[in-house]
Amino acid sequence: MNRQIGVFENAIRIFIVVLSVFALFITSTGCNREATESVNNSSYVSSAVSDTSTDIVSSDAATSLVNNAESIATSKSAAKSSAVSSPSVVTSATSSKSTAKPTAPSLTVYPVPEGLDEEVIGVMHSVKVNGKNSFVYRSEVTVGANYQSGYAEYTSFDFSGSVTVEVTANYAVSSIEILPSRDNIKFTRSNNVIKFTLTNQGQYFIKINGDTSNGNTAPNPLYIFANPPEENVPDKNDPNVVYFEPGVYYHQVYYLESNKIYYFAPGAFVYGRFYGHGIKNVTMRGRGTICGQELTSLGDDGRIVCIKDAENISVEGIQLMHPKVWTIAFYQSQKIRVDNIKTISHGMSSDGIDICGSSDAVVKNSFFRAHDDILAVKSSTMSDYTTKAGCSNIKFQNCVVWCDSSNPMTIGYETVGDVTNVLYENIDVLNQSKSPVWKLEAIMAIEPHYTGTVDGITYRDIRIDIKLSDDPESLFRFVIDDGSGTIKNIRVENVFVNYGGAMTGTIKGRTIMTGVNDITFVNVRNSAGDKLNKNNITTNLYVSDVTVD
Q: What pTM, to 2 d.p., does this model score?
């Protein structure tokens, strides 16, 4: 009987040990779940934490079978502490590019604003993205250098992963090209329907029935603005957020205020302009459009966005179309960030973006079409050309530009103060038509007209998707015609001219005291295999130290 009782007691002890192990295993699983949730549900981080904890649990569980349940409880407690507080596991998982969870494929097409004016509704093309309709807008543009009026159309959407874009032209199609050429996008065509796949976000020109005889003309240009998915959309109920919901808004001028976010939701279409003076910490962002079609002034009030004496300003993601003069301008401002904006404008003074008398500015991942200068730096004030207002530390990066009749990249003409440390990098030029009036335009232009020194300018990785003419300054024009300025320390490297176009340029000073010196060219070539040489460069007596490699 005692033997039977002893056996029974041992069985109970074994049962209790097994039950303890099971209970602790369940507790450990819960701990690991809490640790996983504490790192924002990242699947890779979850896997890393769980795998680490499981290794500890498995080792301790094996030991517990030999020893006792108390040792298992100790190791489980240690595992929970390690999973929650150890930075090494989380840091390792979240910083690894090779194993981090990729962004899931996504697509967002935008709502159509109710009550939209027929003048801004596209009529020449329809677009579908992964089978979903993507609304097409149109904006008035200048077609070619002869100042003929026409229209460009565009559509916008957000995506990640890859998408199939289907364009239907409402006219006969004879030729197609998709630019920039660096993306080498393949397409198929069936009559007037074009299909292609995008895997990279960016801005694209669908050139239908075009030619390259004078720029990149096309009777019905279509632009595809493929944006990255939006992040951190602001709360419309936040008192520091001015939120434009989908719809049409009419207003002549909006005065920007410090410490505010102005959010333009997809499908928001705002007629008017935005002005800020003496403001700080302001963001304009979203996927909506601001249109200057209703503006009446041809002066400073004709700019869609005009900001003066400001600091820490950001403009992101929006479309700007149809200004009366310059599209977006900054005066005497610091810490400027412009990212993924798209502008389409026309008229003789419709610059793309002007950084005037400002410093520490970055303009990137954006598209600009204008009749006049595109990426412009000017050392002048808003009111006159006598007050010195220098520019420094300006970067234009990863931009696509279309210039109807002026300079795609320009420093000047309005220079009063010094301009130093300017970078143009990874720029695609889709168009530049020569004006029959001025005939002074070049892809890269430096023209200090008044006073000031232009020093430390770099052009790097520039691609030109037009056939340049063989006039003396088709590629660059670094010239002092008037005033008392100087040009020095200019570097041009890795420039590629498509269609076998000419590579010519002019470098001229005005006097011994207002000369040009220290100009370096490296790897400037065209698609025909030709390279820039000094015979292609026109100079005068006031130029020194020009190097061509």
A: 0.80
8-state DSSP, 225:
E
CATH label, 112-227, candidates 3.40.50.2300, 1.10.1660.10, 2.60.350.10, 1.10.760.10: 2.60.350.10
Task: Please say whether the beta carbons of 287 and 318 come within 8 A.
Answer: yes
Percent of the chain predicted with pLDDT > 70: 76
In the predicted model, what is the mean pLDDT of the chain? Answer: 81
Contact 283, 261 (CB under 8 A): yes
Digit-coded pLDDT (tens) for 135-144: 999 998 876 5
Quickly list H helices, 280-373: none
Residue 386 contacts residue 357 (beta carbons within 8 Å): no
Question: Mutual orientation of helices 2-37 and 43-66 as an angle, nearest 10°?
Answer: 160
Nearest alpha carbon to residue 140 among 351, 300, 323, 272 = 323
- Residues 19/21/24/25 CA torsion (nearest 10 deg): -110
> What is the spatial distance between Cα 323 and Cα 451, in angstroms, rounded to a whole number?
29
Q: What angle do CA 434, 408, 202 make, to 5 degrees?
A: 125
Q: What is the mean pLDDT of residues 484-506?
A: 93
38-48: burial string, b at 16+ Cβ within 10 Å, e else = ebeebeebbeb
Where do the structural domains in the chain lie, given as residue ranges? Answer: 2-95, 112-227, 352-548
CB 499 within 8 A of CB 470: no
Which spans in 356-441 are helix H? none
Pairing of strands 289-291, 268-277: parallel
Both tokens of 316, joined, read 């992101």
Q: What value does the mean pLDDT take over residues 296-303?
A: 73
* Rounded mean pLDDT, 385-404: 89
Q: What is the pLDDT of residue 92?
A: 26
Q: How far apart are CA 285 and CA 15, in angstroms?
A: 64
Burial of 156 (0-12, 13-18, 19+ CB in 10 A): buried
**22's tokens:** 């099971």
Show the DSSP H helices in 147-196 as ranges. Answer: none
Report the distance separating Cα 484 and Cα 462, nearest Å: 30
How far from chain centre, in Å, is Cα 392? 21
What pLDDT, on the 0 to 100 scale, is given for residue 449?
83
Q: Which helix (H) or strand (E) holds 69?
A: helix 69-85
